């Protein structure tokens, strides 16, 4: 029996080591406080594609849902990812919509322009802020008048975000006042 004990312990260690893997969801939550590591994890997740990302959009953990939204933003020219982002951007969760609007712009998806214009008309300041940032990400000068208007927004946070975006995009009219 004494000879078998080390073999049993070794077997238990190997078994536990094999079962100790973390799920993608656990890994994303674990690194959510370290932006550099989180970005790498999100890029890795994006490489797994929409089938791996889609279930994470339904997670109970906000950090996981936001990471999934970010990963979808890396999937350029992917209609399925774009449609998921449009759905989140038009959804009722403002924080998730914020990130989805920016992710759509990062994709340079054709649908982004309409979503940005809609977000800029929103009563929710956070969505208008996202639209400002998304305009810079998207890079379409036809949207610049929205930044000029947002620089005068009644919400101070939106106005400051618009002015910051105007500096980034070198939109002088928004910086005059």
SSE topology:
Layout: H1 4-19, H2 24-30, H3 35-48, H4 50-53, H5 62-73, H6 79-89, H7 94-107, H8 111-120, H9 125-138, H10 144-150, H11 156-169, H12 172-175
Q: Strand-and-helix sequence, N→C? A: HHHHHHHHHHHH
Which structural class do the helices and strands define? Answer: mainly alpha
User: pLDDT average, as an integer?
Assistant: 84
CA gyration radius, whole angstroms: 21 Å
What does it look like?
- The structure is a single chain.
- This protein is 72% helix and 0% strand.
- The chain has twelve helices and no strands.
- The longest helix has 16 residues, at 4-19.
- It starts with a helix and ends with a helix.
Task: Give me some keywords for this one.
177 residues; mainly alpha; 72% helix; elongated; disordered N terminus
Entry summary:
The protein is an all-alpha fold and 177 residues long.
